[in-house]
Known about the structure:
about 180 residues; about 25% helix; 7-stranded mixed β-sheet; alpha/beta; 4 helices; Rossmann fold; 7 strands; single chain
Amino acid sequence: MRIISGILKGKHLKIPKSIKVRPTTDQSKEALFNILNNRFDFNKINILDLFSGTGAISFEFSSRGAKTIYSIDKNYNSIKFIKSFSIENNLNIKAIIADIFKSKLQFDIQFDIIFADPPYSYKEEYYHKLISILRIKLDNSKGSLLILEHPETITFTKDKNVIENRKYGGCSFTFFNL
């Protein structure tokens, strides 16, 4: 796994074995950031990365110059790695250990992009529950772009806030207006 673009382009991530997650593939990540490059000036945006896992998405945003990045995961080892890598590479990432379903996290900034990559083992209702929770918890980020990574077997056809869906291999990204 590597960082695709920006100041850390080509840097490989040495993920500790204690982090047992399914990271976003380089191919999917590159496709996602090609879409975002056409829509955003990264130097002006605030990012919320949920279910951060390895931190690869947060690192990619930071490498490309994102203004502020919050990286949230409930796994201690993930957050420890993200903090360590961020300090080592002088990245502006605030890594917080929290379970988005249970925590009372509140943010005083408006996020431009919220990226969420829950475990693929989640049932479809958890994805819908996550979207509902985010709409409540991130009330000050109305109009933001929510990007949800999920298995292609899960769809959001009934959600009127879906902008588009992109598929890459067995992975889908659904874009929502929050």
